[in-house]
Amino acid sequence: YCDLQDGGSKHAPQEMEQFLPGDGNTKYKIQPRKSDAEQALANNDFDPFALRDNEHPTTDNETLTHLLKASLGTGILGMPFAFMCSGLITGIFATILTAFICTHCSYVLVKCGHKLYYRTRRTKMTFAEIAEAAFQKGPKWCRGFAPVAKFSILFGLFLTYFGTCSVYTVIVATNFEQLIEHWTGTEISLRALICALLIPLILIAWVPNLKYLAPVSMVANVFMGLGLGITFYYLVQDLPPLEQRNYSVMSTLPQFFSITIFAMEAIGVVMPLENNMKTPQSFLGICGVLSQGMSGVTLIYMLLGFLGYLRYGALTEESITLNLPIEEWPAQAVKVLISLAVYCTFGLQFFVCLEIVWDGIKEKCTKRPTLVNYVLRTVMVTAAVVLAVAVPTIGPFMGLIGAFCFSILGLIFPVAIELIVHWETGFGSYNWILWKNVVITLCGIGALVFGSLAAIKDIVKAYS
């Protein structure tokens, strides 16, 4: 036996094996390559987590609160309609499958980030920087694509989350418009209500960082929890027998996946949350922050979807709140609570956009960075509100942008990054990482196609 050790060189053992002389009988024992983390720590070289310097780090519980808020958005209200598209039994298993794929892609992104911290000797990176570093440190053929990968992710994230901020403004204004008209009996301009939200939105955008935004996310979770609690109260009244509902519907199953993926997907907030953690290692793992958060989210999504479709059947609306009797005060309270929850979530969605723009200009703003930062926040919020005033029917268009960006950013990009990061170290037994990622990529393409088709139908319906 001849022991060959890869002493940290960039050539993988698999490459060396090809050039070793062999007469057919000689056997070579190839020492497996150490992971980047093991190698760096063995040399007492570099620990990105110990060296990370955050002025206001978030605890595990604060990060979990943000993650729950990011995943428990207004998309959850569409789950009963999604279950109508899939059937009761298929809906349960399809929700678990969707949650597993979305969580796995977030896990893969953070895991690759942790590997690249050691390779690049950096203590934190954004989603776009991880993609750029993966391509730069990857095989020669893909290094030229690094700037394209970084720009694509930044552009896609900004477009999606800035659009989401505008949509959230419209959702809050629309709910209050319905309530004011119901209480006063007088019509009120939706655009005027959107304009009235400008100052409250600027104030929440001025919250300086994720540390101080954690209580706001906690309040949003309480509002959403109360709103969902009252909704569940309505759903469990007079439930019909299970036999009256479809157990499985295959013809509209793609629509189920497009609704559920875009409701659950929170890929844009994953790296900002990890970058601001006091203990980033706690984000991953079976009992890590990501697993805990997504397990809870999946359970609530399944429960609301199942009970909502069971209660209303073929009459289930695209948002379950539309099924609630508007003349009753608990149903009105749901609208108020969910509107307040959406308002409180605005800050977290806005943080993704702010970080992208600020990272691009902060090096040029050395004189008064704090002043420039707050002026930037004010300008960006005003732009989001102006967009909402100009196009109050922005929802269907955002559905199209979400279908396009979330399927590519949330599913296809993370697995592409994983393949490049593992290119030299191999894809595991039987190339399982490769085959797994091919399946996820096909799911991403399916989500892109069917999500876009559903969004285009919504746009046509809104303007016809």
Q: How many β strands by DSSP?
A: 2
Amount of beta strand: under 5%
* Major sheet description: 2 strands, parallel
Strand order of the largest sheet: 1-2
What is the overall silhouette? globular
Measure the end-to-end span. Answer: 75 Å
Low-confidence segments, given as residue ranges, are: 1-22, 26-32
Write down the secondary-structure element order.
Answer: EHEHHHHHHHHHHHHHHHHH
Task: List key phrases describing it.
464 residues, mainly alpha, two-stranded parallel ribbon, 1% strand, disordered N terminus
Question: What is the gist of this entry?
Answer:
By secondary structure, this protein is mainly alpha-helical. It has helices at residues 13-19, 36-42, 48-51, 60-71, 79-86, 88-120, 127-137, 146-184, 190-196, 198-205, 210-235, 253-264, 267-275, 289-312, 329-361, 369-390, 394-421, 432-463, and strands at residues 2-4, 28-30.
What features would you describe in this structure?
The protein is mainly alpha-helical. The chain contains 18 helices and 2 strands. The protein has helices at 13-19, 36-42, 48-51, 60-71, 79-86, 88-120, 127-137, 146-184, 190-196, 198-205, 210-235, 253-264, 267-275, 289-312, 329-361, 369-390, 394-421, 432-463; strands at 2-4, 28-30. The protein has a two-stranded parallel sheet with strand order 1-2. α5 packs across α14. The longest helix is centred in the middle third of the chain and has 39 residues, at 146-184. It is globular, with a radius of gyration of 24 Å. Mean pLDDT is 85; it is low at 1-22 and 26-32.
